[in-house]
Amino acid sequence: MEFGWSPEQTAHRENVRALLERELPADWDDIAVHGPGSDAQTAFSKIFCKKLADEGLLISHWPKEYGGNDMTVWDQFLMGEELWAAGEPRGPQYMNVNWIGPVLMRYGNEAQKAEYFPQIASGSVIWCQGFSEPSAGSDLASLRTKADKVEGGYLVNGAKIWTSYAGLATHCFLLARTASAGKGAIVILLLDMTSPGVQVKQIPALIGEGDIHEVFFTDVFVPAENLLGEEGQAWEIITFALQNERIGIPRYAFSRRMLDRAAEKLKADGRFENPVVRDRAGRALALCEAARLMVYRVVHQRATKAPQDAYGNLARWAIIQADHAVNDFMTEFMPEGLLGEDQMQIAHHQRAIAAGIASGAAEIQLNLAARRYLDLPSEPRRGL
Q: What is the CATH number of the domain that holds 117?
C-alpha cells in the first residue's frame, strides 16, 4: 500500500494551511473554545466559509454539476484534517458539506437540489439533525415523533433531544414516524426551523456553548415537497447519511495536534523525561495513528466505490479511543491547562467528552461491529 501523498495532494494540504494562517484571527483560540454551536464560532464560521467558497474549497469535493470542482474523496479528507487540527473554523457548517449535501445529491429531487445547494455552497445556512429523542437516544428505531399526513403535507408533533446547533439552525434533517406508509414507517422531512410550532430549548453542557438542545414540535406543518426520498425509504437514506457522518470528523487530527503541543510544553520544563509520561504519550500517539489509518481504510473504500462494511463503526470507535487517550494524558500531566491557561486544551477536553456520544454512542458502534464484523447474534442464543 502507498502511504505517501501525490504532489497535487501535498499542494492541496499546503494551500489549506496557508489559508488558515492567513484567515484565522489572532484571538481564534478564544473563539474556538466556545464550541462549534456557540454564537461566536457560528458567526465566524459564516465569514470563514464565505472565504472558503471564494477560494473554491468549501464544496470542492462536490461534482461540478452541483457547483463543486470534482475533487476526490481524499482531497476532502485532507482538507478536513487540516481544518479540524486547527479547531474547525467551519463551525457547524462542516455537516452541510460533508453529509447533508451528498445525501441530497443521491436522494433529493431537482427542486430540493435547486433550493438547498446554493445556500450550502454560499456558507450561509446551518443544518441540524433531528434524530435522537428523550425515549430513544441512539436507538433510532424507537423514535416516536409523528408526521401525520394532511392535505398538502405533514403535521409534525413530538420532541428531539441532544440536537446539535439547533439554536442557530435554519433547517432540520428530521426523522418522524408516519402511518401513511404502513405501520411504524419512518419519513425524512427537510424542515424550515422558522416554521410555526417549533420551539428550541438549549441544554447547558460541558461540551461547549449552544452545542446541544431540546426541540419541540407542536402541529408543525411541513409541505409535501419537503419529503426526502419516498415514504418507507428512510432507513436506506439514514444508513447512507451515517456512513458519511461517523468518520466525517477527523477528530484524531485535532488530538494529534494537541498531543504534539503537550509534548513540546512538557519537554520545555523537563517533565517529559519522566518515563511514565513518555510511555503514556506513546500510547496516545499510537491510538491517534491507529484511528487515522482505520479512517483511511474507509476513505479508500469510498474512493474505490467498494461496499461499505463494519469498518466505519470500528474506525469511529478508534477515533473515540484516540480522543480520550490524549485528553486523559493532558488532564493527568498538564491539569493546569484546564484551569484557564490553555484555551485549546479546554476546547479539546470538551470535544473529547462529545466524541463518545455524537454520531451514535460508542457502545452502539461496538454493537454494530459485533453484528456486522464478528457476525455475533443481536440476542443470546437459547441453549448455549
A: 1.10.540.10
Q: Considering only CA atoms, which of 146, 197, 210 is closest in space to residue 174?
A: 146
Q: Which three cell numbers stand for residue 116?
A: 438547498
Rounding to the nearest 10 degrees, give the CA dihedral for residues 43, 44, 47, 48. -140
Question: Both 209 and 280 in a single domain?
Answer: no
pLDDT of residue 382: 41
pLDDT at residue number 381? 43
Shared-domain flag, residues 58 and 90: yes
Number of domains the chain contains: 3
- 358: in domain: yes
- Domain with 71, as residue range(s), is 7-125
Q: Is residue 120 part of a domain?
A: yes
Domain of 317, CATH number, reads 1.20.140.10
Under 8 Å CB-to-CB from 265, ≥6 apart: which residues? 334
Judged on CB neighbours under 10 Å (0-12, 13-18, 19+), 7 is exposed
- CATH for 136: 2.40.110.10
Pick out the chain residues at pLDDT < 70.
1-3, 136-141, 181-184, 205-210, 243-248, 355-363, 365, 368-369, 371-373, 378-384
Residue at which a domain ends, from 230, 255, 283: 230
